[in-house]
Amino acid sequence: MKEQLEAIRKSALDAIGATGASAELEALRVKYLGKKGELTAVLKQMGSLSAELRPVMGQMANDVRASLEKAIETQSAVLAEKAMEARLALETVDVTIPGKTVEVGHKHPMYTALDEFNEIFINMGFEIMDGPEVEQADYNFTKLNTPDDHPAREWSDTFYLDEESRTLLRTQTSPMQIRAMETHGVPIRMISPGRVYRKDEVDATHSPMFHQIEGLVVDKGITMADLKGTLNAVIREIYGSGTKTRFRPHHFPFTEPSCEVDIQCHKCGGQGCPTCKGEGWIEVLGAGMVHPKVLRNCGIDPDEYSGFAFGFGLERMAMGRFKISDLRLIFENDVRFLEQF
Ligand code: DAH
Q1: Is the per-residue pLDDT at 170 higher than 90?
Q2: Number of H helices and number of E strands within the chain?
């Protein structure tokens, strides 16, 4: 029996040490230590032993069982370690490989300028209104006191959409004055930014599509002083508090009197330089008191109400604000340019 036990110990320890997977190890545990296992089979023969031999063999059998259990435990730890190493090797991540950067865009400089502009007017209690780019000639011209034979209505200047010249791509945001008065009624304080279209060749200061911001205030007792006060306040917000302005008489069919507003050149302080083309002044907008005929065209009594209107060029404003020298850069959308803002 002693030899039997020694033989079991030896073969079991060899087999346990040679296992490569925990399933094999479990099979060996059953094979040697299980209820029907080899060691159990030997122990069943204990009854046939003499009284002196029985405790000795019993002790030896317990030793064998203990050494097998210990070996299984040790081997189990070894296998678990190996399995972990294999898994780590398989799932290795090289944290030094450069990642894929996601390019995040940002607001276009012209829209930055527009947002600042909107903010100024919202703070002054103006509403922002939106209107169609495909417009009726009636709104773009007629109701704005611009008669049929006015040169601005020429086919050479305007993108008409039908033979009868009834619909067109709006040449200005001024039709929004009419739409605002018709839909909103008076009193009103609104601005309306948007695209306008003219048959112009592309160059450093012209584009067949550009943006304007229309403004309109109508109420009882509005005067030229309100126009000047409002526009001076806005211009100083945009171009700096020390900016000098000049209100120069001009003609627009839909305002009377009309003016153009210039700011003193911030580059040369009025001396004349390339930025202001030697003028000392830079034109920034057109404005005027809303023509009584325009008020009447919208069903508003000019004896009761008066108002002022103005039109800013958005690109020109953004170019001044960001010192951009060529209008084309604003529309070409070259990221090398846009990234600078
Ligand atoms: N619509 C004019 C233009 O495109 C600009 C303008 C001038 C708008 C005077 C106005 C205004 O509202 O009162 O040249």
Answers
A1: yes
A2: 12, 9
Please answer whether residues 321 and 92 qualify as being in contact, where contact means their C-beta atoms are separated by less than 8 angstroms. Answer: no
Per CATH, the number for 109-338 is 3.30.930.10
Write out pLDDT tens, residues 182-200: 999 999 999 999 999 999 9
**Quick one: CA dihedral 157, 161, 163, 166, positive or negative?**
negative
0.85 cut: is pTM over it?
A: no
**Confidence category of residue 7, pLDDT binned at 50, 70, 90:** confident
SS3 301: coil
* Atom 10 in ligand 1: residue holding the nearest Cα: 310
Rounded to the nearest angstrom, the distance between the alpha carbon of 258 and the centre of ligand 1 is 9
Question: Cα dist. 75→9, 12, 67, 248, 256 in Å?
Answer: 15, 12, 12, 98, 101
Indicate whether residue 310 lines ligand 1 (CB < 6 A): yes
Residue 287, strand partner residues: 259, 310
Token pair for 251: 């003609």
| Distance from C-alpha of 195 to C-alpha of 198, rounded to nearest angstrom | 10
Ligand 1 contact, 288 CB (< 6 A): yes
